[in-house]
């Protein structure tokens, strides 16, 4: 098979490319340039878009003896990931940019270009598994990335390969060292790659500007004013500008955000509990759309807890009833459904959370 190996410059994608070579495939490496101004990217090998990453990927390709290219996806990344991230926060949502990057860049724009050039699949260093066309969790649950891949369609998965999903991270690093790859000890990425300072509030403020509003309690009493709903997310406890806990001495949390009126509501921790979710733009990676209510487990954060649920497709949206409450769930997050078997590792579907309900 002709394989395009997406090489971020990190240890995971490097070993993934190496395994494709070992398997006898015709492999070409590609690094995605995601910024039109590389000088603004962070330094120090802190993530998938630091200044050193393209050079690291090229050195790995040299060791593997494969062709290597850098493809410019900066404009597409800006439109489909960065601008989406900013506009989502402006609407009072809490998006996951890694989900959008996988959905719209790596397995849409990149994969489409790869297929057009005659490649059979794009191989990445994601921790996930494909078994008979079905997306499953990685063997290493601590590193599992099936959550951020659950937005991929069955067609996109047909052109994807995840060579390291069957191996724990520690073994991947050891394998990289054994292969003589200089990235064996390179730190994992954690920050948002397009926010070099790590200051998300400042980044959003520069692009959204000041949109004043109020912070109110459950009775509607104004507790403070703010410069924009993009400074808040559901479940936030600190930085509310309200001068301390409630009259009962208990801490207060952001429980609701109304971007249209600029209102941020705070309340008790119990007010964060939700028993129902509604998700827009559902995706079913196996290509099978549920015909009726479906028992499953649901996860709403990349490494968050899972709870039992019943999901149903209603009017083109996923309606999910939880068997136990989740706290701090925000619009814009991705909900992912897994099959409720003993392993609980097969992805059934996903959607972007459009609304939550406290009603049981």
Strand content: 25-35%
User: N- to C-terminal separation?
Assistant: 51 Å
Radius of gyration: 21 Å
Low-confidence stretches: 42-47
Compute the number of helices.
8
Look at the structure and name the CATH superfamily of the largest domain.
Answer: HUPs
If classified by CATH, what would the architecture of the largest domain be?
Answer: 3-Layer(aba) Sandwich
Structural shape: globular
Mean pLDDT: 92
Structural class: alpha/beta
- Elements, N to C (H/E): EHEHEHHEEEHHEHHEEEEEEEEEE
User: What does the oligomeric state look like here?
Assistant: single chain
Query: What fold name stands as the CATH topology of the largest domain?
Result: Rossmann fold
Largest sheet: 6 strands, antiparallel, barrel
How many structural domains does the protein architecture include? 3
How many strand segments?
17
CATH class of the largest domain: Alpha Beta
Active site: 101, 193
Domain tRNA-specific 2-thiouridylase MnmA-like C-terminal: 281-353
Domain tRNA-specific 2-thiouridylase MnmA-like central: 202-268
EC number: 2.8.1.13
In words, what does this structure look like?
- The active site is at residues 101, 193.
- It is an enzyme of class 2 (transferase).
- ATP binds at residues 6-13, 32, 125.
- This protein has helices at residues 11-22, 53-64, 74-90, 97-116, 146-149, 154-158, 169-178, 200-208, and strands spanning 2-6, 26-33, 68-72, 121-123, 128-131, 134-137, 160-161, 213-216, 222-226, 253-258, 263-267, 273-283, 294-299, 306-314, 317-327, 334-338, 347-357.
- It has 360 residues and is α/β, with parallel strands linked by helices.
- The chain has three domains: 2-185, HUPs (Rossmann fold, 3-Layer(aba) Sandwich); 210-267, SH3 type barrels; 272-357, Beta Barrel (Elongation Factor Tu (Ef-tu), domain 3), CATH 2.40.30.
- Helix 1 (11-22) runs parallel beside helix 2 (53-64), helix 1 (11-22) crosses helix 7 and helix 3 (74-90) runs antiparallel to helix 4 (97-116).
- Mean pLDDT is 92; it is low at 42-47.
